[in-house]
């Protein structure tokens, strides 16, 4: 996967980015440091001081909003990445333009901070709704394998309280407005007939996935088309084959009865911090094969941009 | 007409298998990609009639949504749920109101998937062992799902030699004095007749029909209606019972199959009548055990050809017929060249005296 394109990655939840402590993360093999300046604006630089290559995330955020390297105290402006101060050279306040860290484009919508490695990229249009439930996990699984697991058996990577995912699809993976969309039949857990003998399923899980970033909107619906739960899952490829996953979820219409109450209990959605290798190995790649083919076709016909419509 | 076009493969000198004149070459069928075979302009069985009530239930054909409910007792089939906030376009398979052509027959709800103006009851498959107006007891019906492509499930069905191994505990093992397989076909159907002399008695008959003899003669017929992905599986066991099964394999998606099965055991003894339809639950899981891992291996083209035995001719014919029909449809030819609704009692050897409605 090319990370040089104009892709916007939801690398952090808004509340994770503060002006107290820099946040270290990766987009693929690119280390990124993220913080909030004194205006409250999220900033992103390469996590590497151009002086002696120390991680800027080990430094601190100054009152003026600049990030300061913890090694020799060099300070950088978050918007441009330009060097602003060297503690031992207080008399010199201007430095040549080459004295700078690479700055990345940042866009924040309610809920997520997104970073694009192209600093000139146009910010995505987005309108994330409010989410009550949030989480971050780092999964020792490649970005593509993580998405394949989501396609073939979402139970490998997440759980919805009181809900069991079936292997039967209401709609196979297909392209819809530039997104990879599918709908999976689900049952209430734990009392249910074996899914292979069930005539009607009471629930479906609709997923809409961006073909490049893998950012996915999930909607749990009942059989009367009521949205019971919706969530956004943002897997970002990180260093050493790890996938960093930020997610947000919100409850929708209340389903009547005990089952609806169970769903509305503590943490209706949980995203697993690890993938069970024995289950992953035994999971047959079916939907993910379609996904691979679809992605190829979509990438051939559309440029690699991130028109982030997940929340549309 | 079926009667003249229906002919054994072995006697067909002009068949593709022997001459290569068919648009579908033998090499192609040995490397078929059933997931890519999408049929249309056909009636698909989507629900037992009793499961459609005033509350909408959801079905799909090739991922196209179908919502079924009854309005004053009449079945309505729409591509939109009544509660849905419609944010998508209507498909080409429904009328201006987003409704599919729908009919009830044989106790099953059928959807016409294709050009709605071409919907015609004359294209409904013939199932002469089922009462046209339905009404069989519910214990003779079931819903079963397969994690495989519908053509994979149907190919599994038309190759009955697998049953001697996979379903030996239900239908008996492979031992018999002789076994022959004949295949008949036209442009819309493939029919396989397997005749076994002195075959091991099916355990399910031994225990629930009281068959005392060690062997029985068996005549099994599998007849597949290609477009509808429907099959008849009719077994005549002597000594024993006649067991006709409606075995549809509705492609809800290209890789998931739904079966609204109906087994008419009205003429069998009390025990067998009730137990045999339930065997479908066991047999289907045994089939899934193989077809589920098998199906993904047919999702993409491969240069490695499948190997065959002489008992696979029906399966090969099925592959070829499906590919030829898919080719025709890909070229815009959706016409029926053979009549699928003509009574097929004689073709499947139905003992009509047992099934009068």
From TrEMBL, chain A:
Mention one GO molecular function: 2 iron, 2 sulfur cluster binding
- Reading the lineage from the top rank, the first entry is Bacteria
- InterPro entries from the xrefs? Cholesterol_7-desaturase (IPR050584), Rieske_2Fe-2S (IPR017941), Rieske_2Fe-2S_sf (IPR036922)
Q: Does the keyword Oxidoreductase apply?
A: yes
Keyword set includes Iron: yes
Q: Where is the Rieske domain?
A: 8-106
Cite the entry's keywords alphabetically: 2Fe-2S, Iron, Iron-sulfur, Metal-binding, Oxidoreductase
- Identification of the protein by name: Rieske domain-containing protein
TrEMBL record, chain B:
Molecular function, one GO term:
oxidoreductase activity
Recorded hits in SUPFAM superfamilies, A to Z, give: Bet v1-like, ISP domain
Query: Where does this protein have compositionally biased stretches of type Basic and acidic residues?
Result: 1-14
Q: Tell me which InterPro entries the record gives.
A: Cholesterol_7-desaturase, Rieske_2Fe-2S_sf, VanA_C_cat
Give me the ranges of the annotated region Disordered.
1-20
Q: Where is the Vanillate O-demethylase oxygenase-like C-terminal catalytic domain?
A: 149-327
Which Pfam family, just one, is annotated for this protein?
VanA_C
List keywords of the entry alphabetically. Answer: Oxidoreductase
Q: What is the name attached to this protein's record?
A: Vanillate O-demethylase oxygenase-like C-terminal catalytic domain-containing protein
């Amino acid at each position: 996967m090319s990370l040089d394109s104009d892709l916007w990655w939801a690398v952090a939840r808004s509340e994770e980015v503060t002006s107290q402590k820099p946040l270290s993360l990766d987009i693929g093999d690119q280390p990124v440091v993220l913080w909030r300046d004194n205006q409250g604006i999220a900033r992103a630089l390469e996590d590497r001081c151009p002086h002696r290559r120390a991680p800027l995330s080990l430094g601190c955020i100054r009152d003026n909003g600049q990030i300061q390297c913890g090694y020799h105290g060099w300070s950088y402006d978050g918007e441009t990445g330009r060097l602003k101060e060297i503690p031992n050279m207080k008399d010199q306040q201007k430095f040549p333009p080459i004295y700078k860290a690479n700055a990345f484009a940042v866009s924040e919508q309610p809920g997520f901070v997104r970073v694009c490695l192209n600093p000139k990229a146009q910010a995505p249009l987005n309108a994330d709704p409010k989410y009550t439930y949030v989480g971050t996990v780092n999964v020792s699984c490649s970005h593509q394998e993580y998405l394949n697991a989501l396609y073939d058996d979402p139970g490998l990577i997440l759980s919805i309280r009181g809900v069991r995912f079936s292997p039967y699809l209401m709609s196979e993976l297909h392209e819809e407005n530039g997104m990879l969309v599918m709908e999976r039949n689900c049952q209430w857990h734990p009392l249910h007939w074996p899914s292979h003998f069930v005539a009607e399923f009471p629930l479906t899980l609709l997923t809409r996935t961006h073909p490049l970033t893998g950012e996915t909107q999930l909607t749990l619906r009942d059989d009367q088309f009521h949205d019971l739960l919706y969530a956004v899952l943002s897997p970002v490829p990180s260093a050493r084959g790890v996938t960093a996953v930020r997610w947000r979820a919100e409850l929708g219409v209340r389903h009547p009865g005990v089952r609806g109450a169970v769903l509305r209990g503590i943490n209706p959605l949980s995203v697993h911090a690890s993938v069970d290798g024995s289950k992953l190995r035994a999971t047959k790649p079916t939907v993910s094969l379609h996904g691979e083919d679809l992605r190829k076709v979509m990438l051939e016909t559309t440029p690699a941009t991130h028109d982030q419509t997940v929340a549309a | 007409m079926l009667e003249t076009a229906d002919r054994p493969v072995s006697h067909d000198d002009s068949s593709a298998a022997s001459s290569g004149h068919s648009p579908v070459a033998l090499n192609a069928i040995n490397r078929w990609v059933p997931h890519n075979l999408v049929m249309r302009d056909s009636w698909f069985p989507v629900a037992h009639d009793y499961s459609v009530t005033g509350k909408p239930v959801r079905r799909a054909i090739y991922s196209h949504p179908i919502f079924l409910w009854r309005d004053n007792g009449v079945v309505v089939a729409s591509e939109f749920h009544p509660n849905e906030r419609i944010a998508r376009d209507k498909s080409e398979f429904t009328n201006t109101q987003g409704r599919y052509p729908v009919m009830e027959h044989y106790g099953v709800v059928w959807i016409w998937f294709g050009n709605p103006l071409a919907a015609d009851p004359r294209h409904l498959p013939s199932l002469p062992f089922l009462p046209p107006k339905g009404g069989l007891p519910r214990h003779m019906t079931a819903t079963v799902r397969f994690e495989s492509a519908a053509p994979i499930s149907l190919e599994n069905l038309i190759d009955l030699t697998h049953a001697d191994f996979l379903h030996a505990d239900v239908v008996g093992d492979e031992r018999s004095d002789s076994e022959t397989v004949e295949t008949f076909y036209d442009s819309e159907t493939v029919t396989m007749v397997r005749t076994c002399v002195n075959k091991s008695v099916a355990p399910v008959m031994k225990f629930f029909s009281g068959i005392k003899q060690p062997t029985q003669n068996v005549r099994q017929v599998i007849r597949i209606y290609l477009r509808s992905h429907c099959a008849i599986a009719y077994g005549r066991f002597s000594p024993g019972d006649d067991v006709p099964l409606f075995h549809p394999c509705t492609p809800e998606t290209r890789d998931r199959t739904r079966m609204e099965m109906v087994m008419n055991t009205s003429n069998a003894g009390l025990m067998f009548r009730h137990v045999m339809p339930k065997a479908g639950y066991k047999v289907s899981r045994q089939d899934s055990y193989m077809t589920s891992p098998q199906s993904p291996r047919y999702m993409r083209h491969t240069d490695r050809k499948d190997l065959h035995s002489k008992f696979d001719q029906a399966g090969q014919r099925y592959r070829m017929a499906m590919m030829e029909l898919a080719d025709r449809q890909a070229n815009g030819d959706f016409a029926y060249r053979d009549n699928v609704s003509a009574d097929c009692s004689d073709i499947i050897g139905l003992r009509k005296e047992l099934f009068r409605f």
